[in-house]
Amino acid sequence: MSEPRTGTGTEEILYGRTDERLGRFEVRAVDPFRDAELLHSWVTHPKAAYWLMQDASLPDVEREYMSIAAAGNHDAFIGLHEGGPAFLIERYDPAEVELKGLYDAQPGDIGMHFLVAPVDTDRRLHGFTLAVITTVMELLFDDPSVDRVIVEPDVRNTAVHALNEAVGFRVVEKLAKPEKEALLSVCTREMFLAARGVTR
User: Fold this and answer.
1) Regarding predicted confidence, which is higher, 114 or 197?
2) Where are the beta strands (DSSP E) in the chain?
3) Is pLDDT above 50 for 4?
4) What whole-number distance in Å separates Cα of residue 45 and Cα of residue 86?
5) How much is the pTM?
6) Rounded distance, CA 80 to CA 18, Å?
7) Residue 35: which of 157, 117, 126, 98 has the closest Cα?
8) Average pLDDT over residues 28-51
9) Nearest one of 133, 149, 155, 138 to 188, comparing CA atoms
10) C-alpha span between 11 and 166 (Å, rounded)
């Protein structure tokens, strides 16, 4: 379990892990006002098309993350790599958000979205996105009440499907959502550990 600490600013680091190759990854809560400009630049970037916020204005992004911060079943985090903002995480109750009424919800389910900050491909560290999703999964399973992680990526997002499979997700079914056709996929704690080669 990671010990919370105070970061270089006023933010509290809620989770951290060190990747043997790529260094330190940490997570803090999103501040909807302070982070809005940064998040706007990420979610409206062409490489973030599957985030479905391409046409969002800066006030739109502020409102979206204020709404998430006020929700009791949805929250958002900034992921840091070596102290700098590098990815976005959303965690939600899939029985109430995104998938309400669309799948067989179970106690201990948690939903997530993640977005790696768009950068030029030649500046991306090899294995970085896998290290990010591993950090996200470790953050989620750091909560002992979580038994399964649920995701619903766009069926066309083949890069994310491959990443999900690499950390243990199994596709359950295709889902027709209002905004997309999705691949409902699940990963239990045991599936994640097995994918990482960890035995208990």
Assistant:
1) 114
2) 5-6, 12-19, 23-29, 74-81, 84-92, 109-116, 148-151, 170-176, 181-188
3) no
4) 14
5) 0.91
6) 11
7) 117
8) 94
9) 149
10) 31
